[in-house]
Amino acid sequence: MVTMKNNIIRGKCVDISSEGKGVIKTVYGVIFVDALLLGEEAEIEVTYARKGVAYGKIVKLITKSPDRIQPLCPVSTACGGCVFQNASYEYELRYKKHKVEETLKRIGHLENIKVNDVIGMDDPSHYRNKIQVPFGKENKHVIYGFYKSNTHKIIPIKECNIEDKKAGPILKEIASLMEEFHIDPYNEDYRTGIIRHVLIRTSISTSEIMVVFVSNVDTFPGRNNFIKELVNRCPQISTIIFNVNKRDTNVILGENEKTLYGKGFITDEILGLKFNISSKSFFQVNPIQVQKLYGSALEYANLSKKDTVLDAYAGVCTIGLLAAPHVKHVTSVELVKSAVINGRNNAKLNNINNIDIIEDDCTLYINKRLPKFDVVIMDPPRKGSTPEFLNALLKIKPSRIIYISCDVSTLARDLEYLVKDYNITTIQPVDMFPRSFHVETICALSIKGQM
Ligand code: SAH
Q1: pLDDT at 1
Q2: Are residues 256 and 292 in the same domain?
Q3: Do 101 and 19 belong to one domain?
């Protein structure tokens, strides 16, 4: 039942949107409400409305879901990063499974597909190994935090519930040292100041920590003393990089950088293999769940020493390198040169020789040579694959395909192509980003007519 009085609407949450918001259906249209849980009834203030779609916020909660919890973070609503801060983790995992089932039906028209329970974390907090924090000034003090959603206003935050606990104390020390050394944060409006962002990457296997200062100037007076004092106060830091970004775009890191302390990279491990990570390397941000994601993907691929594998959309070849010890040969194909170089270095680091890492578009690669593969593992970006690549796959017909997807709507769209010739054997969602609405999905397919 929906009623409206003085621009306040009363309604019940009947669904959760793909972005994790509560859905209220009214005669005026659908309202997406922040932090409203399934089954809850509330008075809602509409904050934005256009062409039958509206957004709103809770003014008064009338019935409370048993899954509602006290928000774990004081700025959860303003920051916007964690849409599930006020719901139990079980609720979040149920929602993520439902999202996969519903999307496969609605977009992929795939009926009667069994979706496994989402593989979650034992403790869904402090998992992020990469943190990028803007610095600014407020009341003459250096502050750091997160941009308020859709703005460049910094919300100061002392401790974030999803980032690695090792980052907070270092950021705090950096802020006080900047005040002591009179190093100003960058001011976007006046283009003054020095430090724009600080990026911290941590490794769970080696405990190494990288700190990257992103600056709009090439250097500043007293830089060496500043770095020396930082290492003195935070001896847990392994390497410090000074990155220069003079452009006014949303890209955080600039082209040029210099290592000021340590070796310029950190090393982490996934399922026993080592990976060197530089400031710009792609590396999964949840080092605990990545083991489960890739471990499960390899298990579903059912690899044997006779198999040849194509690792398409390879990135830094993490999956290809993990598969290599179990198979005859792997070919990894990746478009971006720096990722290819990273992949080759990682192959050397781990003494893996039965892998070819090719810089190419994966569709062109297949169409040029029509190679034979037993297994294709594909991990495309958020926008998914393309009809051209999927048609190329249907030409070379590997007996198994493992599709790893970070957006189930593009997975659903792409599966519609493949199900003509392939059976879906497993759909396994993995929660790589607890508290956000994102869900990663592994889909295993095997060619029809073969046992
Ligand atoms: N599994 C990888 C990450 C994959 S992210 C890892 O662990 O490193 C998707 C990758 O696909 C990106 O690196 C992107 O550069 C690459 N890519 C996008 N389009 C491509 C194409 N047409 N051919 C080959 N690679 C492509």
Answers
A1: 45
A2: no
A3: no
Q: How far is the CA of 381 from the centre of ligand 1 (A)?
A: 6
Residue pair 130/201 in contact by the 8 Å Cβ criterion: yes
Using most ligand atoms within 8 A of CB, pick from 282, 313, 414 the residue to mutate for ligand 1.
313
Q: How big, in percent rounded to 5, are the helix, strand and coil portions of the chain?
A: 25, 35, 40
Token readout for 405 is 């997807």
Q: Which tens digits make up the pLDDT trace of 151-196?
A: 888 988 878 899 999 999 999 999 999 999 999 999 988 889 999 9
What mean pLDDT is reported for the chain?
94
In a domain, 215, yes or no: yes
In a domain, 276, yes or no: no
State the Cα–Cα distance between residues 306 and 107, nearest whole angstrom: 36
Tell me how far apart the alpha carbons of residues 199 and 328 are, in angstroms, rounded to a whole number. 39
The answer, yes or no, to whether residue 147 has pLDDT greater than 90, is: no
Question: Considering its fold, how many domains does the chain have in total?
Answer: 3
Among 335, 367, 368, 440, which is best to mutate for testing ligand 1, by the most ligand atoms less than 8 A from CB?
Answer: 335
Kindly give the number of the ligand 1 atom that is closest to the alpha carbon of 343: 8
Phi, psi for 279 (deg, rounded to 5): -60, -35
Residue 447 CB contacts under 8 Å (≥ 6 apart), including other chains? 397, 398, 399, 400, 421, 422, 423
Same domain, 107 and 137: no
Q: Are residues 295 and 427 in the same domain?
A: yes
User: Rounded distance, CA 106 to CA 112, Å?
Assistant: 12
- Based on the number of CB atoms within 10 Å of its own CB, is 441 exposed (0-12), middle (13-18) or buried (19 or more)? buried
Residues of the domain holding 30: 3-68
Note if the pTM is more than 0.90: yes
**Which tens digit of pLDDT belongs to each residue from 283-334?**
999 999 999 999 999 999 999 999 999 999 999 999 999 999 999 999 999 9
102 CB-near residues (< 8 Å, 6+ apart): none
At 197-219, the pLDDT tens digits run: 999 999 999 999 999 999 999 99
Examine the fold and report which residue of 270, 302, 320 is the final residue of a domain before the chain moves on: 270
Query: How many angstroms does the Cα of residue 362 sit away from the middle of ligand 1?
Result: 9
Separation of CA 363 and ligand 1 centre (Å): 12
CA distance 75 to 154: 11
Atom of ligand 1 nearest to the CA of 386: 22
The residue out of 241, 270, 299 marking a domain boundary is 270
**Residue 160 annotated in active site:** no
Pocket of ligand 1 (CB under 6 A): 282, 313-316, 318-319, 333-336, 339, 361-362, 379-381
